[in-house]
Amino acid sequence: MSSTALYVLVAAGLFGIGVYGLIIASHLLRKLFAINIMGNAIFVLMVAASAPLDGRPDAVPQALVLTGIVIAVSATAFALALMVQLYRVTGQASLEEDPTEDD
Amino acid sequence: MTEALLAALVFLPLLGACLLLLAPSSWRATILLAVTVPLPFCLLPLTLLIADAGLFEMTLAGHPAPLGIRWRLDALSLLILWLNVSLMILVGLAAGARFAPASDVGLRFWPLWLLLAGGIHALLLSADLFNLYVTLELVTLAGIGLIATGGSGAALRAAMRYLLLALMASLLYLLGVGLVYAEAGTLDLYQLGETLEPGLLPATALVLMLAGLLVKSAIFPLHAWLPAAHGNAPGPVSAMLSAIVVKVSLYIIWRLWFWTAGDWQLPAPGLLLGLLGAGAILYGSALALVQKRLKMVVAYSTVAQLGYLMLIFPLSGLLAWQAASYHLIAHGLAKAALFVAAGNILASLGSDRLRRLAGLDQRLPMDVFALALASVSLMGLPPSGGFVGKWLFLRAAYEQNAWGWMALVALGGLLAAAYLFRVLALTCFHPRSHGHSTRLREPPTLASLAGLLLALAAIALGFASAPILALLEAAWPGAMTP
Amino acid sequence: MTDLAVDVLIGAGLLALAWQTIIGKSLFRGIVLFVVFGLTMALAWARMGAPDLALAEAAIGAGVTGALMLVAFRRLVRIRPEQSAQPALRRSRLALPVAVLAGSLVAVIGLAVVAVERDPAVAGQAVAQALTDSGLGNPITGVLLLYRNLDTLLEVAVLLAAFLAARTVFGEDEARSPTPSRREVPLVGALLAIIVPLTILIATHLLLAGSREPGGAFQAGAVLAASGVLLVLAGRLQPAAGLSSWPALGLTLGLMLFSLIGLAVMAFGAPLLALPGLWAVYLIETAMMLSIAMTLVLLFAGASGLRRGSP
Questions:
Q1: Domain residue limits, chain C
Q2: Which residues contact B104 (CB under 8 A, 6 or more apart)?
C-alpha cells in the first residue's frame, strides 16, 4: 500500500470520528473539535487526490488548503466567541433548547 | 473601463468597511453614502453593455484560467447584483434608522454589512469554484455576525446553529471542489463545462457540492436552521438574509447545474431536486400557517418560496429559467419589504405576536400598507413582480404538459394567500375593548418609508418584465447548446 | 519499508488522538489533545511533502486554534465554574452507524480517486511554468500572491469579518473590569525581553523565506501573534473596550493595502490585481502578517482594542 492511500484511509477515519463527535457531543466546544477534525480530513483528501508533478505534490491544492486552514481558524474563532456569549446569556454551552424560552 | 466598474462593485464595499473602522465616528455616515451611492451608477453602464453584448469576462491578476481566476458577468449575475444594490440602499435606509452609524452599535453593524455586500458581489462575479468557496465563507460569516447583533439568547442560539451547519456545508462543498480539481485539473466553472465528462467521480463531486449548497440555501429538508435564524435577527438583517443571502448559494447550484454540468442530461436528479422544491413549498407554507409570531410567518414563507427556485431543475427550459430568475428577484424585494415592515412593527410594539397586531392598520398605517403590498407580490397576484414569476412557471409547466407542477405552483400561491391573509386579517381586525391599550413607539419614518419603497418596487417589477425577460433569454445556456 | 512504518505510526496516532479528543471526559484535556492532534497533523503534512502546510498547521491549526479554545474555556469557567466541568456527551444509537457510513463513503471516494493514474493537473503545470518567470521559488506563494491572489485577498476579508462578527458578541466585562492586579513574577520581564524579539525575528524570517522556501504571511502572522499573546498574558497589553486607532489600523492594513495596490495597477493599464513586482508581494505580505497578528491577538484578548498595561 502506498503512503498516499494510507493517508486517504486515515482521512476517512478522521472524517468518521468527526461525524461521530458531531452527533454525540452536546457541548459546543466538542462540536468545534469535531468540525475541525472533519476539516483536516478533507484537507488531507484534497492534497492526496491530486496527481503529483515531477514527483512533487501539486502546488495548487496545497495553496487552496492553506487558505482553507485560515478560513477554518477564522470561523472557529467566531464560533468560540459566540459560544462564550451564548453561555453568558443563556447559561448553556449547547444547542439544546430551553423549553420555556421559545414562544 | 468596464473592468474598473466591476472592481468598484467589489472593492468599494470592502474598502468602505476598512474606512468605517478607521475614521472618526462623525464621518461614518458619509463613508457609507460614499461607498453605496456609486454602486447603481456602476451597474447602469454594465446593464447597457450586457443588453448589447450579453456577456463580459475579465481576467484577474493578468493570469487566465486555469492558472488564474476570472470574473464573468451575464444577465443573471447582473440582475442579482441589481437586487443586492437595491437592497443595500433601501434596507440600508431602514437599518440606518435603527443602527445609527455614529453610534457604538453602528460600528458593530455597518462594517459587517459592507463586508457582506462585497462578498455577495464577489460571489456573483466569480467564475472559479474555489474562489466561490471563499466568497461564500465571507457572506456566511458576515451574515451570521449580523444575526448576532440581535443579542438575545434566541438570536445567539440561532446564529450558532446556522454557523455549525454552514461550516459543515462548506466542508462538503470543499471536498467536491477538491475532487473536481483532481479529475479535471481546473477550477474554472465554465472551462469545466467543456472538459468535465459525466462519470462516477465527477458526479460524486457534484453531489457533494450540491449537498453543501443546499444546506446553505436552506432547501427542504435541510431548512431547519433558517426560521430561527431569520426570525430572531434584527429586522433589516432578516431582510438581507432572506432576500439575498440564501439565494446566492442557490445561484451557485444553478451555475453548476446548467453550466458546469450543462450537457450531462440529468432528468432523474433534476426531478428529485424539483421534489425537494415541492416539499419546501408545501411544508414551509403549512408551517407558516400555524406560526404565532409575525417574523416566524415571514421566515417560514421564505422556506416555502425558496422551493420555487428548485422547479427550474425538472422544468428545465427557457421559460422555467426566466420564471425562476424573475421569482428570485421579485421574492427578494417582497420579502425584504415584509421583514423591514415586520421589524418596524416588532420594534414599536415590543412584540410581534400575531394576536397583538389587532387594529394595527390605524396605528402604523405605512408599515401595514407595506405588509399588504408585499403580500400581493408574494401571493403572485397581478400586476406584481411575483405574478410574472408564477405566471411564467405555470406557462413553463403547461408547455411541457407537466400538470403536477402546474397544480403545485397554483397550490403554492393559494397557500401563500392563506398565510398572508391570516396575518392581514388579524392586523386589520378591530376588537372593541383592547388593542389600543398598549403604548406604541412610532418607528422612524425612514424605516417605514424603506419598507414601503421595497414593497412598491416588488409591485413595480411586474411592469418591467419585457426588458428583463429579454435580458434573461440571452443568458440562458440552453440557447447556446440546444 | 520504514517509511511506510512511520506513516502508519503517524496515522494511528492521528486517529487515536482524534478519538480521545472527541470522547474524553474533560474538556480541558480535550483541548490539549486537540493541540497535540494538530502538531501530529503537521508531521503528517511534512510526510506528504507539504512543508508549507506543516508550518501552517503547527502555527495556525494547532497553536492559534488551541490558544483560542483555551481562552474560551477559561471564560466559560469564569462565568459559571460548576457547569463547565460537566461531561457533555449524549447517547445516540444513530451516531456509530452514521459515522461508520460517512467514514466508509469518504474512504471509497478517496481510494477511487487515488487509484486512477492521472496526468498532472493543467493548473498545476501552469503554475510550474509561470513560476520560473516570477522570481519566486515557492510555488505556493506564487499561487497565493500572484495567480489566485483574489482568493488570498478575500481570505483576509474573511478573517476581518470573523473578527468583526466575534466583536458583536464580545462580553463587555472582559474589557471593562481591570485585569486582576497580578504580582509581577520575577524574571517575566527578562523572559519577555528575550522571547518577544525572538518571535519577531522568526516571523520576519518566515515571511521572507516564504518566497523561496516554506513559509509566508499566514504562518509568520501566527508566530507574531504568539508574542502578542504572551504580552497579553503577562499583562503588558490589556484589553480595551473601544476600537482605538492603531489596533484598527492593524486590523485593516492587509486588506486595504492589498486592495489599493491591486486597484492602483489598473491606472497603469495592467489588469486588476496584477501585482507590479516582487516588492509589491513583500509589501502586501508584510501588511497581511501585521493584520493577521493583530486580529489574532485581539481575538485572544476578547476585546476590540488594546492598551498598554503597567509593566
A1: 1-118, 120-311
A2: none
Average pLDDT (B191-217) is 93
- Residues C142/C130, Cβ–Cβ less than 8 Å: yes
CB atoms within 10 A of CB B153: 18
Here the cell at position B94 is: 431602514
Q: Using CA atoms, how far apart are residues C65 and C60, in angstroms rounded to an integer?
A: 6
List all chains that touch chain A, counting a touch as 3 or more CB pairs closer than 8 Å: B, C
φ, ψ at C86 (rounded to 5°): -55, 135
DSSP secondary structure letter of residue B241: I
Q: Per residue in A56-102, pLDDT tens?
A: 889 999 999 999 999 999 999 999 999 999 998 888 888 876 544 44
Q: What is the pTM of this model?
A: 0.96
Neighbours of B353 (CB within 10 A): 14
Query: Environment class of residue A68 by beta-carbon count within 10 Å: exposed (0-12), middle (13-18) or buried (19+)?
Result: buried
Which residue, chain included where needed, has cell 407595506?
B370
- β-bridge pairing C237-240 and C305-308: antiparallel
Where does residue B13 rank: exposed (0-12), middle (13-18), buried (19+ CB within 10 A)? buried
- The C-alpha atoms of residue A98 and residue B97 are separated, in whole angstroms, by 33
**H/E stretch holding B7:** helix B2-22
Does A77 reach chain B within 8 Å, measured CB to CB? no
- Report the residue of C1, C65, C154 to disrupt the A interface, i.e. the one with the largest count of A CBs within 10 Å: C65
Read off the pLDDT of residues C141-170 as tens digits, 9 standing for 90 and up: 999 999 999 999 999 999 999 999 999 988
Answer whether C241 touches B (CB < 8 Å). no
Please choose, from the candidates C102, C54, C108, the residue with its C-alpha nearest in 3D space to the C-alpha of residue C218: C54
Domain boundaries, chain A: 3-90
Chain B residues whose CB is inside 8 A of the C149 CB are: 60-61
H/E segment holding residue C131: helix C122-134
Strands (E), C18-129: none
Is the CB of C121 less than 8 angstroms away from the CB of B181? yes
Beta strands in C89-247 (DSSP E): 237-240
Partner B, chain C 101-160, Cβ-Cβ below 8 Å: 106, 109, 112-113, 116, 118-124, 126-127, 130, 146-151, 154-155, 157-158, 160
Please report residues of A whose CB lies closer than 8 A to that of C86.
27
Ramachandran area for residue B100 (φ above 0: left; ψ -120 to 50: alpha; else beta):
beta
C112 touching A, CB under 8 A? no
CATH of domain A3-90: 1.10.287.3510
* Closest CA in chain A for residue C80: A91
Q: Which residues of B touch A39 (CB under 8 A)?
A: 167, 171
Averaged pLDDT score across all residues of chain B: 93
Distance to chain C for B17, nearest Cα, Å: 9
Cell reading at C1 = 519499508
User: Distance from first CA to last CA of chain B, Å, rounded?
Assistant: 34
Q: What is the pLDDT along chain C (311 residues), one digit of tens a residue?
A: 688 899 999 999 999 999 999 988 888 999 999 999 999 999 999 999 999 999 999 999 889 999 999 999 999 888 877 655 555 677 788 889 999 999 999 999 999 888 888 888 889 999 988 888 888 889 999 999 999 999 999 999 999 999 999 999 886 655 554 455 555 677 788 888 888 899 999 999 999 888 888 888 999 999 999 889 888 888 888 888 777 788 899 999 999 999 999 999 999 999 999 999 889 999 999 999 999 999 999 999 988 888 887 65
| Pairwise CA distance, residues B482 & C7, whole Å | 52
Single-letter amino acid, residue B437: S
Compute the nearest-CA separation of C48 from chain A (Å): 8
Distance CA B145, CA C137 (A): 39
Q: Do B112 and C164 touch (CB under 8 A)?
A: yes
